[in-house]
Amino acid sequence: MNAAVPAAERPILHLLSSGGFYGAERMLLDHCQATPGRHRVLFLDAPAELVMRFQQAGVDCQACRGLGELLRVLAAQRGERPLINTHNFKGLLFGWVGATLWRLPMVTTQHGFTPRSRKQRFYTWLSLQLCRTPTVDRVVCVAESIARIHREAGVQAHKLEVIPNGLPDSTEHTAAPRPAHGDNAWLAAYVGRLSSEKGPDLFLDTLIPLCQRHPQVHAVMLGEGPERDNLQARIDAAGLGERITLPGFQRDMHSWMTRLNALVISSRTEGTPMILLEAMQEGVPVAAFGVGGIPDVIEHGRNGLLATPLATAELGEHLQALLQDPQQAAELVARARQTQRERYHLPTLAQHWARVYLGTAKEVVA
Question: What are the beta bridge partners of residue 217?
């Protein structure tokens, strides 16, 4: 039965549990459009607008409510011997059950871990244990730092691949109207979910003193999340409500990128952030904490500026350097664009992914 469907023709079923369109979702959408193969996304308890966004982009997908419905979908397709690619903990857990039950080839994509609570630490531990089992044929990590965690947990080396996130070639966009901060404003941005692991509070620890020292500095925090009210209260208490704003989630990042003087990544934990690659492609200087896969991408002083994790004063010094030395900023931008084109180019990385899929399917057939 395994040999009935050639490896190259097997559908690729992506399993993802998600609350919205963030970095992993952006990566998956681009991945399905760029990587050879028959891709289908099975969303596990995802909002309808996220499913619709993938559908509007031409990606075959459907919503599954719970493990039972997912197993019924897999059972209906098992004659084609689909290859399962899971994303995040719930996708991995449910995919592992389905792949074990129907003896299907399985790849898991590890975007990163956020083990800040007891529950998240348990999820991280269980994810690593599942990756050690024979059911999981390949573990693709988006950064070397994530692969290192798997090796230290005893995941066999032959299972591990490192394929960073990448971007498609840039295209023309139409800029949408945006709030003005003044012709002489110098604008820094936070982009991401307003939740603890992404460090929006650390962004304010960095930007509030910088705004107080330099009246031309403004900031935007683009995203939504549970910390929004606390962040707004801190901004108001500092008297900076007109200079640090929270416009919410944005669908068109290009229209913001054209105005930014710096992107700040203040995360406590990361994989390879898509917004980092977007800034490099769009020509926005980056100052970031050296966490997760960020140091794999950014070489301090060459194509961006790195600060010690959680060191907000150091991060602020880097932003002040960008503010006061436009020539340095321009040089960083030029080298960052080159790095993105050479190492984080999606069409090139998609071929690597295609080889992983084909090799995994052939091994299972054999």
Answer: 186
Entry field: residues in the chain: 366
- List the Cα angle 176/177/179 in 5-degree steps: 135
Terminal CA-CA length for the chain: 12
Residue 229 tokens, joined: 């009210």
Q: What is the pTM of this model?
A: 0.86
CA–centroid distance for 265 within its chain? 12
Its CATH class, for the domain covering 186-343, is: alpha beta
Cβ atoms 263, 274 nearer than 8 A: no
CA dihedral 199, 203, 209, 212 (to 10 degrees): -140
pLDDT digits 0-9 by tens, 200-237: 999 999 999 999 999 999 999 999 999 999 999 999 99
Structure confidence by residue, pLDDT tens digits, 71-89:
999 999 988 999 999 999 9
224 with 249: CB under 8 angstroms? yes
Common-topology check for domains 2-166+345-365 and 186-343: yes
Q: CATH assignment of 2-166+345-365, given 3.20.20.70, 3.40.50.2000, 3.30.300.30, 3.40.1160.10?
A: 3.40.50.2000
